[in-house]
Every structure is written in structure tokens, then in C-alpha cells.
User: Fold these one by one.
Assistant:
Number 1:
Amino acid sequence: MAATIRDVALKAGVSISTVSRVLNDTCPVADDKRVRVESAAKELGYTPNPVARSLLSSETGGIGIILPFVSGEFFSEFLNGVDQAAQEQDFFLLISTSHHSSEDLKKAMASMYRRVDGLLVMAPHMTTQAVEALAPDGLPFVFVNTEVVSDDAFGVTFDNYGGMYAMTAHLVSKGHRRIAFITGTENAYDARERLRGHLQALKDNGIAPLDELIFKGNYDQRAGFEACNRVLRLEDRPTAVMASNDDSAIGVLSALRQAGLTIPDDMAVTGFDDVQSAQFATPPLSSVHVPVRQLGTAAIDLLVSRLNDVQRAPQMRTLPVELRIRGSSK
Amino acid sequence: MAATIRDVALKAGVSISTVSRVLNDTCPVADDKRVRVESAAKELGYTPNPVARSLLSSETGGIGIILPFVSGEFFSEFLNGVDQAAQEQDFFLLISTSHHSSEDLKKAMASMYRRVDGLLVMAPHMTTQAVEALAPDGLPFVFVNTEVVSDDAFGVTFDNYGGMYAMTAHLVSKGHRRIAFITGTENAYDARERLRGHLQALKDNGIAPLDELIFKGNYDQRAGFEACNRVLRLEDRPTAVMASNDDSAIGVLSALRQAGLTIPDDMAVTGFDDVQSAQFATPPLSSVHVPVRQLGTAAIDLLVSRLNDVQRAPQMRTLPVELRIRGSSK
DNA sequence: AAAAATCCTGAAAAGGTTTTCAGATATTAC
DNA sequence: GTAATATCTGAAAACCTTTTCAGGATTTTT
């Protein structure tokens, strides 16, 4: 059995209060007792039981992360940022993924209740309000990449709309007029925003958006591949395909190459996210660079600052994105 | 403040013991009290405090996952499997990544002590014994993809050696004699095993391994790209490049294409892992399929069975891999 | 030298649950 | 009708800390 504070007290010949005081350095203690306690603790290999601690303080030192799913490079990179920031701030991380229905989400949040001090939630299929309604109360939130409807939410997101707007404008400036667009996951906030940016850019450039040029996707490579094959069956073939993320775009590249088309001459292609694969695609993929890792660190930092200061004013932060034009759309 | 068991007892007009008995269905309770307790609990929205529970039982319902780093599709997929299995078994997940030094690892394990019931450790740079030596005792382990030295370890791995052996044999059977090999992360268990499989297959086919054909990599795309450029500077150019994983192989494809070579005619290329990107590379990448998701579920299942049965005999499980030959090496 | 202040220390309560123990009530057996 | 059993219930201990409270010892002030 692991040593308890009582064992240390016994060995050092002092009361448990004194042990606690020495270990937490919370009150002055006579030097001789201090050293006796310290050596006793060391000899016994004593570590305070975090469970007992948090029963008393009702703080846990943990942060929960709730994600809709994890796939591809985007999430690895995001988790990287989250974990780094959490370690720096001395929080441990609980993680739970694959929440699509609000039932799932509710269950996940309930299972984290009192095991964490706060929650990082990515719920692209819901609004911040809807999520908060499901949560056990008193649990502070920070939202990532989630639609905000109230004005008192904490969150970090990035400029989905502006990024796709800029990329569309780029293609138009290269002379493209007939542009196919492959959407992301249906009903997802970021996917909607990206589509909205695209459509607005078309309009602002005097191009009428056409339904027949919008193709359903779901952010993965296979979906991009299949959607692109549908694009190629159009009578009047577009000169460019915009995918809603890099994974889809890689599927698009694959389909185009199989069809014997050259990129970007026969067809320009663009992605979104700028994961590492975009740079090493053939040809290198034009994409919208998203600071994914920073998205993770910023979210943790915001949550921690909220935990440390209950008065902290709500903040919605939108990280800027950046066009990275490469060979696939030159 | 959230309701406690005392509030429920008060409201139902019974003792807290009775409430506990009703909620855990642990002893017979008179029907009238039972319904009173149930409705009181419901009205107050009572949920037992898991902290208080685990202080008493010293069980947490949690599993810790310790990873060296997370990057690329491999880890997303692995986490997917882990999370799914954990949810099915009603465990929550603590995660901690980026542990390279044993100091890091020790700290991570210490911070999980008593917050989890068991640990899933992926430590390709260490042996199972070395990890166990750093751990607070009494914490059950399951190792993933880690070198085993003792015969009482629990773990799941996959056939790194055999996969690369088979892939090398495949290339030899296609007539390749001069094959460049790009290694994975230095000193990592899986990287060493893959190299070993490659070298053994060469020997078994009467080909002498050459040092000049082994190039240092680290599993990422850029490393593959750069290593491939070094390959291309060889006077006597190889006819094939084997990368230690798919990410590196994608970097290789990119470098070869930039150099104007056609694949597989000028140069065959192979990967390892068979992540989704392998299928959608151009040309589609020959790879060794690893059941990554299953790796995650198998590890959790093994750990849970160990937690449920202290007598459980140690088990090292090696999942089979499978050659997937595609256009890059035909 | 007495009073006041300072410093250190231990006992005990608190946090929320589960479980043991023993008591009370109701039921069965003779 | 009494004794023995079965059934249900509550009080209290236990899990391991931190923190409050009050007491004792020492030092400082007058």
C-alpha cells in the first residue's frame, strides 16, 4: 500500500497537520521538524493523494476535451497544441471523441463532471448555446470552432469564411469563372462558413453561383475522390475544383490524375487547412493555412485564464488564416 | 452547489445509507422508501461525486494513455480505436503526449497516479522494463509498440519486422537489386524492427546490404523528401526507394516527381502503415497495411481484462500486417 | 516581573461517498 | 405465545487531505 500522510507523520513523530504544512509550505514550522518530515516523506516515497485533495478543494487540475471525431493530420496537430499548453500550465487532460448526437455529447460531459475543472468543446454541429444547455452547470467552457449565438461565450476559432473567400478570389483573379466546390461535413459550422465565403466571393466578383457546381463531401479523401469524379461528368467541365479541406483536395488530385488530366493546366485545385501533406502533394497544393497548433494552445490558455479568474470577461477569438498559393493553382 | 447524497436523504426522509443502497441497488429497501429516494434524486438532479467514490474504493474508472508524440493520420486512427473501446467499457481517458526523455515519461506517469486504474504506454524509445522501473508501483500497464524484454509484460504490437521483410521480398521479386531504404525515427523500436526486416530479406535473397543505401529519416514527409534527394545524388542510382512509413514515402514521391522521374518505371516506391493517404497518393502507394484502429481497441481490451482480473496471465499480442501492392511498385 | 504579542503545534472538522455493525421491526417456527 | 429468524434501517467508521481553532511555549514590550 502506498504511504499516506499519516505514515509520514508517524515516522517523523509529528502530527499530520505539521506534515501538510511542511509539504505545502503554508505555515512556518520549526526547522528540526521540517527536516524530519522531509526525510520521512522521501524515504516512504510519499505522494499526496490527488483524490483526497480534490474532494476537499473541489478542484481537480484537469481539463476535458470533447471532440466530434478525430481523423487525419488536423486533429493530431490540434491535440499537440492542446497537450503542450496543458502541460505548461500543469493541467492534465481528459479526452472524449466521436460525439455526433447531442445525446452522446451530454453523456460525455456528464462523465467528466467533477473530474475536470473546465471543458474544451469542439462541436461543429451545434451552437454554443445548445451545448451549454446540455452541460452540468458550473462547468466553465471554451469552444473551439463552434458557432456562437450568445454574446457571453468563450471561444477560439479561425477565419473559415475569410479564408475561402480569399482563395476563391485568387482563382477568379487567375481567370477561372466556372469553379466546382466540394463541401465539408454536412451541417458543420466550419463547412458552412467555408461555403459561404466561396459564394460571397463569387457574387462580389460578378459570378452567379450555380447549384450544379456544389458537390457534397465530408472532408475525407475518399469523399474528395468521389466528388471529383462527379465533377468530371459535368457536360461543361469547370476549370477549377475547390475542396473544403486538404484531405478532400488530395482525393481530388488522385481522381484528376486517374482521369489523365494535368494540374493545374487542365484543372486547378485548392484545399484548406494547409496540413503538411499539402506541401508534399503532387503538385504542391494551394491551401489556406490554418494555425492549427495555435488553435489548441490558444484554447487552453483561454480556459486556464478563465479558471484562474472567475471575473474574466468572455472572449471570442478568431485566428487569422493565410493564403498559400502553390503549384496546384498557378 | 450541486446536490449531495445528504440532500437526497433529507428530502426523501431517510438516512444516507438508504439512499446509497437504493442508488447502487446493493441491499433490499422497502418499496415506499425506494420510490421516495428515486424521485428525490431525480428532482435534485443528483449525481454521485466520483471523487468521493474513488477516495473510498481507490478505483477511478480511468485509463491513462501515454504517447511519445502525435502526428499524422496514424495517431488519429489509433486514438479513434482507443476511445471507442474505452467508451464501450465505460472508462474515461487521460492523455499525455510528447514524452521523449525518461524524465518526461516519469513525470507524466506520476501525474496520472491515482487518477487512473491503468496505463497504456507507447514508448518506442524504451523497453518495457525501463518504463516499469519509472512507474509508481501498483499501476498496471499495457504496452503498445514497445520493445519487450521481460516475459511478464502485457502488450500489443504488430509485425514490423515481417511487414518490411515481405515488402522487401516483393521488390526483389520484381527484379530490384539496388534498393534505398529510408529509416524511421532513430532508435525507435518499430523503426529498428522495420530496418531489420529489410536487411534480413535482402540477405535471404542473396543481396548484400550496403551502408550507402541506408538513409536516415524520422517518419515525416519532409524527412522523406530530403532523404530522397540524397538518394538521387548517388552515382549508381537505385531502382527502388523503401520508406519506413507512408508519410516519408509521400515525401519521396514528391521529391521524385520534382526530379522529373516517373514512378514506378524510373523508381519504385513503397511505404508502411497504409494510412488513407497511401491509397490516394499519385500513384497509389504500395504499403504494409497495419490495423491501427484495432491496435487501439486491442490494447484497451487487454488492459481492461487485466483490471478486471488481477490473476490475468501476461500476454504479448502481435497483430498481423498485410501487403498492399499498388501502382507505386508495380 | 507581568502583560502582551508572536510563533509553533496538534486536535478536530470537513469534503461525499460506501460499508460494516448493530439495532429495530416484522415474520416464521415451534 | 415465545423464541428464532429474516428483513430492513440508521449510526458511525473509513478513505486522505487541508484548514480552522485553540492551546502552549517562547519572545517581546511595558
Number 2:
Amino acid sequence: MISIKEITKQTGITVRTMRYYDQINLLSPADKTEGGHRLYGEKELIKLQEIQFLKTLGFSLQAIKDMLENENHDWFSGLQNQLNYILKEKEKLGEMESILRGLLHEMVLEEQIDLLQLQKLIQIYQKDFHKREAYLKQMFDQEERKLLDMLPNINHGDPDTMEWIALMAQLKQHMLKGVSAPEVQRIIRRMDEKTVEVYGDCPEFIDKLWEIRKSPEKSQEAGFYPVDQELLEFVEKAFVIFQNNRKEA
Amino acid sequence: MISIKEITKQTGITVRTMRYYDQINLLSPADKTEGGHRLYGEKELIKLQEIQFLKTLGFSLQAIKDMLENENHDWFSGLQNQLNYILKEKEKLGEMESILRGLLHEMVLEEQIDLLQLQKLIQIYQKDFHKREAYLKQMFDQEERKLLDMLPNINHGDPDTMEWIALMAQLKQHMLKGVSAPEVQRIIRRMDEKTVEVYGDCPEFIDKLWEIRKSPEKSQEAGFYPVDQELLEFVEKAFVIFQNNRKEA
DNA sequence: CTTGAAAGTGACGTTACGTCATTTTGTATA
DNA sequence: TATACAAAATGACGTAACGTCACTTTCAAG
């Protein structure tokens, strides 16, 4: 049994934090002295480490509490959701960064910067925002959602899906080399193999998938890994080459 | 002069927000009716737009207030500071993302995840980087270290790493079918291709890597992601078969 | 038994509003 | 003009994860 002071020494966590964790029933002391001083054991230290670790992943204390309390918590989904959340936040920051850089660049060109200048710049940037917003809102449709819901849990991180994504991303890297490059054709061959292995007896499903893939909006709705049009066309062309080569052989 | 309702209609900003801005003296109404209802003019609308815009850059309301109040505010420095701040935040999120990806990748390999598993993973991640660096330095020379950097690091979401993990995980699924099963051999062939693509003409390096991989202790010291022994042996055997088949062909 | 350090318990502050509950004002209609 | 109903106002509490007083009690050494 160690005192609260020992905890702060060993972990760097403040006394206040320990008391707070006790207060919200996230981590209670193993025991207390007669006078009410908190005493912690080895188990608590370990739990504290876990809490700290999960905090570095950006989870809220409430979420951490739920995770550690639920004996059969779905860690995979939990982490995936968190990853998605983090990615969204990163995207937001990315936009901020982009606008800030734009402003700073323009300010280098304009020599004098005051409120009036800024107002002009704001006008420009706000226009873009409104356009984007309008564009996105226009793309909503009820019927399309049903189709997407019928798809299996393709974004659930199973190895097959993962490889698909990995292969696509690799193709993107090799795009400059052209559809006939050996690396490209090897990847395409692997894709073909996987298509047969996984979806062999259900070609309609593949068609459906491909249709959604070809629509960026639908892909995004479905939570697919975003693939740009250029890449999709590249894949289609490379597949044609691949099939021709196979026929000749 | 327009009412608060008009403001919400035109800008989408809530009544509560307008009252709050009034309360903190960020944006006060131009006038009030006898009964105390807020009335805004064109100037206020513009200021409100500015506020909204600066908010999208991540500034706090207090900061925005200071900026708009100070007649000769140093916009350039202000924006630059904000950019730095944003970049730091992005970096933090990037680390979270990296760790999350690492965990998720490992979870694709392990099928069951519970608190005990997580504790093990936490142990690995909490290990300090210095130990790893030191260990790796002593094992590999300079040139090899360059290659080592290309080694699939489980934290990086790059396509090559993803495919490695996906292939490993798929192998695990197919283990029961034996080392000669066509699915297995196709995966092995793909692994071989990738090995050659990435590490090309340096087979000794691959041997050394493989040696570390086969020793759980060494792997852990090097900070590699954990792969169970059974799977590693399976891969080795399957590779032997693969190479024999190739010789015969 | 004293004494100073360490620990305890409230309580308030932080951000940018959301969400009641209650009261007052504005306005359209009978 | 009285009334009804919408809209606006005010005030208060809640949010997350503690930091920071202020004040009291307990612990351990001398």
C-alpha cells in the first residue's frame, strides 16, 4: 500500500487528479487510513497506467470508465470509432491550417494589414465555405442509403478489406508508371485473385460495390476508404490490360 | 435594424450565441427597443461574419475580442502564432492516430481482445523509444538502418505496411488448410514479391530481420509488433514450399 | 505533546454555448 | 381595444478535466 504522494512521484500524476478520479469513481483507492488518507496498491497503479494510456489516445474519462468497467467491451469498434473521430479532428485542423497559410501568404503580398484588408480576405474565404456547404447538402438521398445498409460490414477492418485498401493505395503510388508497369500488373493480379477468392460466387455484389465505388459521394456515405475518380479509372484500364495479357498467355 | 431572429435566419447563429456574445461584450446590439429587444445593424452583421471566420481558424472568443478591439493589432503575428498552435495540435492528433492504427493492426492479427491483451499492448507501447533505438543500432549497420526505416512499422498507415499485416492476418486464417494450400501459396507469393520490391537486392538484411522475428524476446526488444510463433513457423514452411515449387517450374 | 508537512474537503473558475423555466414584450386578430 | 400567441428576455444549471485557493484534519518525527 502506497500513499498518494508515492503515486505522484512514480507517475507524475497530480494529487488533484487522483482525487478527481476517486470522485468520479474512475479509480478508487484500495484502502484508506483511519484518518481517511487514500492508499493505493499495485492493481491501482496498473489501472492508472491503463487510464493514462487510453487518455493519450484521446478518449474521455467517461469513455475510459465505461471501457474498463465493461468486462466484454468491444475494443476493436471502440478504437476504430476513436480513430475516425481523431481523423475528423485532424481534418478540421488541416482546413484551419490551409486557410491560415493562405491568409499569411496574401499578407506577404499586401504590405499593410488592417481590419479592412482582413474583411476583404474574409469575404473571399467565406464565399468558398458557402459554396462547399451548399454542394454537400445537395447530395442527400433516402433511397441510396438503403442500398448501402445492405452491404456487409466492409469497413470493419477484416484482413481482406484491409488488403483491398492497401492494394488500392499502392496502385495510387504507382500510377505515374502507367497501367502496364509490372508492379501495377502484379497488384492488379492480386486484386483479381482476391475478387475470385472472396466474392467468387456472387458477381452481382461486386458490381454493386464497384458502382458505389465509382461514385465518390456514395463511397463517402458508406464510409469507404475514399478513392478518387482518377484512380478508379486507372484501375479499370489496368484491369483491361491484365485480362488481355491473360488471354494471350 | 433587424431583429435577433433575422440574424439567426441569415447566419444560422443561434439566439443563445448572440446573447452570449452580447454578455461577454464581444458583439453588442446596435440598439434596443423600449422593451429591451436587441436590434442589429449592418455593421454588426459584418462583425459577426468576421467573428465566425476567425472562429473557423480556431481562435478563442477572448482572442477574437482582443483582435477586433485593438485598432492596431498585429494580424500577421497573430495568425502565425495560431498556425503554430494548430500545427502542434495536429501533431498530437497524429500521434494518437499512429498509436490507434498500431493497436488496430495488432488486433487484426490477434483475434481475441480483452483487458489482458490490452495490458500487454500497453506495456509494449509504453516502453521508451530509446531502448529500441539502442538495440536496433547495435544489430544493424548504417546502410541497413535505412532499409530498416522502410520496415513495415505497424503504426504507419502506409499501404505497404497495411498489406503486410493484411497478408499475415489472412495467412493466419488459412493456417488450418496447410502450407501447400493454393490460397496460402498465393499469399506467400505476394509476400515474396513485396519483399523483393521493398528490400530488393539485400537478402542478408532480410535474413537478419527474420532471425529477430523468430525470437520473441528479440522482437520485443526491437519494438516489432508481436506475431505468434506458430504463425511465424507456418510462414517459414510455406516459404520453403513456395521456393521449391518455383525451382521445379 | 508539539509541530510542520501532507492530506483531506469544499468551492469557484475555465470555454462556448445548450437547455430548461419563468417572465416580459411585440404583434396580429377578433 | 382586449386578447392570445409567438418571440424575446433573464437567470440558472450543466458540460470536461482538472487548477487553484481556503480552511481543516491527520500523520510522523522529534
